[in-house]
Amino acid sequence: MAEEQELKDHREEQELQIVLLLGLGPPPLFKFFPELLQKFKFLSPFEYPTTPIHQFLKFHAQSIEVMICMGGGRKESIPVNWEVLNSLPSLKCILNTGVGVNHIDLTECKQRGIIVCNAGNSYSEDAADFAVGLLLDVLRRISASNRYVRSGLWPLKGEYPLGHKVVPSLLIPFYVGGQRVGIVGLGSIGSEVAKRLDAFGCSIAYNSRRKKESILFPYYSNVCDLAANCDILILCCALTDETYHIINKDVLSALGKDGVIINVGRGALVDEKALVRFLVRGEIGGAGLDVFENEPTVPKELLELDNVVLSPHKAVHTLGSMSALYELTIANLEAFFSNKPLLSPVNYEQEAITL
Amino acid sequence: MAEEQELKDHREEQELQIVLLLGLGPPPLFKFFPELLQKFKFLSPFEYPTTPIHQFLKFHAQSIEVMICMGGGRKESIPVNWEVLNSLPSLKCILNTGVGVNHIDLTECKQRGIIVCNAGNSYSEDAADFAVGLLLDVLRRISASNRYVRSGLWPLKGEYPLGHKVVPSLLIPFYVGGQRVGIVGLGSIGSEVAKRLDAFGCSIAYNSRRKKESILFPYYSNVCDLAANCDILILCCALTDETYHIINKDVLSALGKDGVIINVGRGALVDEKALVRFLVRGEIGGAGLDVFENEPTVPKELLELDNVVLSPHKAVHTLGSMSALYELTIANLEAFFSNKPLLSPVNYEQEAITL
Question: What is the pLDDT of residue A323?
């Protein structure tokens, strides 16, 4: 049979160390860094479209000790659940190309002694840059201004938003310096955000599972308390059972009508329905969202709002991040195959992204 | 005659110190801070629409020692030229509500011993925030992403810009940290920009008329040399005869095809036709523009480009800036009427905005 022959041919070629590739089609990493393909033998179910994935995994089960996993956080990605893990009894290591590992069953991995690595700090600066970019955009209405100019309204209606006819509540009330910023999840992304916003004159506070003794910013153990004492919340934490819908209606109420939510973590950190309700009713001041609960679906109510900036889960799409991820992936694979410590293991109780 | 009676009535009411208000209709400053009206007597030609402006000025000529001037930089604003200055022989002081004073004949003011004040540092932080916001938007395509999501393309076409079909040149190549930023005009706005971008990991260099001995950033006496050694140019200088079209085709060529121009100064700092040509041909990487040569007209070629972010001259439209300007205006007026030194005089050879 064609598919069996296909698989056999492949097995016979194996001189290089085998790495399973699980995700959504060929990842950009290999497009940009084809030299990876010379160093390791990658197996991917996507190269064998006629073979069902469970059969593919079963066929290669014994030979696979390490797997690269990508596309996490996307609805259509393959979750690394009990079933997948069970079909790979030799698996010792998962290298996730993303930062968030909520698509991987960490409890099961822990029980099986499988080390899970994520993208480490590869994306931290890009994610932080993007978070700050979203914040500046929401506070200073950059996308909305851009839309205003492109629509040809400037010569017709005068200054954005309403020229000299502005009343105080319509004039953009926000001033970046002096804003009280609450960072939810002070991992490496959150720390990079803090460093940047400090230079703008913002005051910083944070929430995380535990107070970090080396950090001088005020700590709030409760997100609601953080929200009550901040103008802006920036979500940089991992999605876990504990952080699912960590931003709910109570937090949004505490944040108040001038409050702004920035999310570069995962969509499900936010109760999206509640957020939409608060935004539509003007009960919070704005939002900058790179991630959504049901990507690529974006609540249609948001599409009309000038105080909302939407982005298609792209905070870390730069060649800089790609290149850093490439270096990390090579280093992790080489460490794995030479029995050295891996470079970016996650703890099984993910607290903040890239702790 | 109605207009004469109108003017006479007005003159008789004068118990408070008189301040002439010259600009485009009632400025927002007085809308937001009506208490200003209780402290001084403001005369504005816009309150006497039946009186031609030169007649209005002539009528009040002897009584006017100080004038507040707003709307500078806008095409339809009244230039403070020889004619206006000549009709106000008692004028000793001009308080400009903007930072740029290119609509005021500074040479003539100098000869007449008229002190010219601008908005000082009132806007510096807002302008710097906006410049950085524009830069992040251009580098990380935030407005373009927002447009992509709002147009409903995400579920249809996948990740912005082209999902996994991206080729390196289409993947956003920019990484904020490590970008070499050249600041043209290192006044207080430029310095605030430098402070912020330093926190992102950018390296900073600058051009100004003279090297500033207290500044450690590399200095280039020539904008072309600065451009050749930078990835990004941020324009924060005043518009003067010397800085008119300081960004011309030679500078754009030196900046190169991945280069980015950010302008929060004045439109005419840039040879806009050359900029449009370079952008349309892909000979520079992008632009973030808050100001244009013929506001509110924006070159239509720019409206189609994803690597360009456009804003309707609003970098400093915040209540924070308004409030700072109000404080400064009161302080300058009080200083003027009590013969104390003014707080924000410009030098007659404007070098960088808010030196």
Answer: 82
The answer to whether B309 contacts chain A (CB < 8 Å) is yes
pLDDT digits (tens), chain B, 355 positions: 566 666 555 554 557 888 888 875 556 666 667 787 888 888 888 778 788 888 888 888 888 999 998 766 565 567 899 999 999 999 999 999 888 888 899 999 999 999 999 999 988 999 999 999 999 999 988 999 999 999 998 888 876 653 333 333 334 446 798 899 999 999 999 999 999 999 999 999 999 989 999 999 999 999 999 999 999 999 999 888 899 999 999 999 999 998 999 999 999 999 999 999 999 999 999 999 999 999 999 999 999 898 899 999 988 877 778 888 888 999 999 999 999 999 999 988 764 444 3
Q: List the Cα angle A232/B183/B280 in 5-degree steps.
A: 90
CA triple B225-B192-A319, angle to 5 deg: 65
d(Cα A118, Cα A69) in Å, to the nearest integer? 9
**B124-310 classified as CATH 3.40.630.30:** no
B266 catalytic per annotation: yes
CB contacts of B318 in chain A (<8 Å) are 140, 171-175
CB of B172 within 8 Å of a chain A CB? The answer is: yes
Q: Cβ of B312 and A177 within 8 Å?
A: no
Check B60, B266, B272, B351 and give the catalytic one: B266
| CATH superfamily of the domain spanning B2-122+318-337 | NAD(P)-binding Rossmann-like Domain (3.40.50.720)
Run of H or E including A21: strand A18-22
From A134, A140, A310, residue closest to B130, measured CB to CB: A140
How far is residue B152 CA from its own chain's centroid?
35
Q: Where in chain B is the domain with CATH 3.40.50.720?
A: 2-122+318-337, 124-310
Structure tokens belonging to residue B35: 């208490």
Q: What's chain B's length in residues? A: 355
CB of B355 less than 8 A from some CB of A: no
Does an H or E element contain A326, and which?
helix A319-337
Measured in degrees and rounded to the nearest 5, phi and psi for residue B109 equal: -60, -45
Backbone angles phi, psi at B138, to 5 degrees: -65, -50
Token look-up 């996730």 returns A96
Distance from C-alpha of B130 to C-alpha of A139, rounded to nearest angstrom? 10
Nearest by CB to residue B164, choosing from A28, A171, A313, is A28
Cis peptide before A299 (omega within 30 of 0): no
User: Is B26 an 8 Å CB contact of chain A?
Assistant: yes
Distance from the Cα of residue A228 to its chain's centroid: 25
Chains A, B: CB contacts within 8 A come to 203
Q: How far apart are CA A269 and CA A337, in angstroms?
A: 36
